[in-house]
C-alpha cells in the first residue's frame, strides 16, 4: 500500500531554495516558468523535523567519511586519540569490505552514502575494545609501510589492507549497512563495496565470458518518493535592493549595497510513502506508528529555513489531501499543467485548491476508484472553497492525522 500526500502551500516573498547563481530555483511546466523547490531540499526538511520528534535513534547522516563520526565517538566516549581513531576506523571499514580511499592522511568512501548515527556509534564501541584496536592499528601501520616501499610510485595504503572474515569485521559491516534506521528506510542508500577481479580461464577466449573488474553495490530502495514542489502558476524572480548605513562613517552614503533575488508562490507538492517497505525496514528501536506519525507531521508542517531572518515566510499548508492506494502512487501535478490564474480579487490559493479538487474528481470519474483504499483531507479553508473535497475533510489537524494513520494502517479495503 502507498500513502500519498498532496499539498497546496503558499509562501510570501522568500528564498526557499536557491540554484548555483543564488537565484530561487525554477522549472518549465505547461510552457511557463514556475517557482520550484527541489526534492532534496524537501527531504532534508522532512528528516530534520522527524529527527527532532523521535530523537537520536532516528538520526542519520549523509557522508563519504563515516570514520569521522566513529573517530569523534572514540575520542569523546572512550578517550582515544582522534587522529589514531580516524586511521583505525578507516582500516576497520576497509577490512569489512568498503571501498576506502586515502590521500594525505584523510579517508573517504568512493561516494556519499547515508548511515544511521546510532549504528556508527555502535561501531565505535566495537573498535574501542583493546585487542580490536591494537589489531587494526597494526594493520594500518603495515599497510602504510607497504605503501612507502613504492618509492616514487604513489600507493594508497588502503588498497593494501586485506579483507577480513573475522566476526568483528562482519559485525562492523552489518552495522554500517543496517537498514532499520528511519532515514535509510525512507530515503534509501547505495554503497559501492571493494572492487574484485573475477577469475577467468586462461584458455577461454570468448570476450563475453571474461568479466572485467567490478564493484559490488549494496542498494536499499527508498520507501519515500518526493516530487519537486512547483508553483501552480507562472512565477518569476524579483530583486530586493538593500543598503546599510555605517553608523560611524565620516562621509555620507551607504556603507554597503546589494540585492537579494526572491519570489513568492503557491506550490503544489506531493510525497508518496511505500507503507509495506517502511514497515519491513523498521525492525529496530523505532515503532512504526510513531515513525508514521512523525513522517506525516514532518511532511505537512515542514518549513524551509533559508533567508528566514530576512523574509520570515513560514506558512502552514492550505490543503492536504491524503490518499491510500493499493497500487502504484500517482501525482496530481497535471491539475496545474495549465497555470492557475488569480481570483478576480487576487490570490492563487483558492483557485489552486479548486483546480486540485476538480482534477481529482475528473480522474476518479474517468478511471474509477479501483485500488483506492481511502481518502481524507484537511484544510483551514471553508467547505465552499473545498467543493467536493469537503465531503472527506477532517478538522482539526490532530484529528486529520489520526484519520490518515487509520487509513494507512488498515489491513482491510475501505470505501473511499
Number of domains: 2
Strand portion: 15-25%
Q: How many DSSP-defined strands?
A: 15
Helical/strand content category: alpha+beta
- Largest beta-sheet characterization: 9 strands, antiparallel
**Could you give the order of the helices and strands?**
EEEHEHHEEEHHHHEEEEEEHHHEHEHH
Average pLDDT metric: 88
| Distinct helical segment count | 13
What radius of gyration results from the CA coordinates? 27 Å
Shape: globular
The N- and C-terminal alpha carbons lie at a distance of: 14 Å
Helical residue percent band: 25-40%
Which residues sit in consecutive blocks of at least 5 with pLDDT less than 50?
197-214, 412-416
How would you describe what is shown here?
By secondary structure, the protein is an alpha+beta fold. The protein folds into 2 domains: 2-38 and 228-409, no CATH class; 61-199 and 214-220, no CATH class. It has 13 helices and 15 strands. Strand 5 and strand 6 form a beta hairpin. Helix 1 (39-54) packs across helix 9 (288-301). Mean pLDDT is 88; it is low at 197-214 and 412-416.
Amino acid at each position: 500500500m502507498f500513502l500519498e500526500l498532496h499539498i497546496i502551500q503558499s509562501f510570501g516573498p522568500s528564498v526557499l531554495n536557491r540554484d548555483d547563481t543564488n537565484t530561487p530555483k525554477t522549472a518549465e511546466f505547461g510552457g511557463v516558468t514556475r517557482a520550484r523547490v527541489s526534492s532534496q531540499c524537501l527531504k532534508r526538511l522532512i528528516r530534520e523535523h522527524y529527527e527532532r520528534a523521535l530523537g537520536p535513534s532516528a538520526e542519520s547522516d549523509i557522508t563519504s567519511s563515516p570514520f569521522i563520526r566513529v573517530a569523534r565517538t572514540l575520542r569523546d566516549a572512550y578517550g582515544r586519540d582522534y587522529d589514531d581513531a580516524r586511521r583505525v576506523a578507516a582500516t576497520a571499514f576497509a577490512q569489512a569490505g568498503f571501498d576506502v580511499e586515502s590521500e594525505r592522511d584523510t579517508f573517504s568512501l568512493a561516494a556519499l552514502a547515508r548511515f544511521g548515527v546510532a549504528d556508527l556509534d555502535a561501531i565505535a564501541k566495537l573498535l574501542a575494545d583493546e585487542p580490536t584496536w591494537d589489531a587494526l592499528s597494526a594493520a594500518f601501520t603495515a599497510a602504510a609501510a607497504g605503501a612507502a616501499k613504492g618509492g616514487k610510485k604513489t600507493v594508497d595504503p588502503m588498497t593494501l589492507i586485506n579483507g577480513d572474515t573475522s566476526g568483528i569485521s562482519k559485525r562492523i559491516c552489518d552495522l554500517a549497512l543496517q537498514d532499520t534506521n528511519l532515514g535509510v528506510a525512507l530515503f534509501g542508500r547505495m554503497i559501492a563495496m571493494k572492487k574484485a577481479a573475477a577469475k577467468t580461464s586462461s584458455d577461454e577466449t570468448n570476450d563475453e565470458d571474461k568479466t572485467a573488474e567490478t564493484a559490488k553495490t549494496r542498494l536499499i530502495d527508498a520507501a519515500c518518493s518526493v516530487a519537486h514542489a512547483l508553483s501552480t502558476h507562472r512565477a518569476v524572480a524579483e530583486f530586493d535592493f538593500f543598503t546599510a548605513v555605517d553608523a560611524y562613517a565620516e562621509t555620507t552614503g551607504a556603507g554597503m549595497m546589494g540585492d537579494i533575488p526572491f519570489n513568492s508562490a503557491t506550490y503544489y507538492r506531493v510525497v508518496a510513502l511505500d507503507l509495506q517497505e517502511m514497515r519491513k525496514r523498521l525492525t529496530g528501536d523505532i515503532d512504526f506508528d510513531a515513525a508514521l506519525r512523525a513522517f506525516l507531521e514532518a511532511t505537512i508542517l515542514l518549513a524551509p529555513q533559508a533567508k528566514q531572518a530576512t523574509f520570515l515566510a513560514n506558512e502552514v499548508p492550505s490543503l492536504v489531501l491524503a490518499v491510500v492506494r493499493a497500487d502504484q502512487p500517482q501525482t496530481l501535478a497535471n491539475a496545474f499543467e495549465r497555470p492557475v490564474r488569480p481570483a478576480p480579487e487576487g490570490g492563487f490559493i483558492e483557485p489552486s485548491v479548486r483546480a486540485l479538487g476538480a482534477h481529482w474528481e475528473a480522474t476518479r470519474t474517468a478511471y474509477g476508484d479501483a485500488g483506492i483504499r481511502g481518502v481524507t483531507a484537511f484544510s483551514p479553508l471553508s467547505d465552499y472553497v473545498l467543493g467536493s473535497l469537503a465531503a472527506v475533510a477532517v478538522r482539526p489537524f490532530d484529528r486529520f492525522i489520526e484519520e490518515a494513520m487509520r487509513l494507512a494502517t488498515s489491513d482491510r479495503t475501505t470505501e473511499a
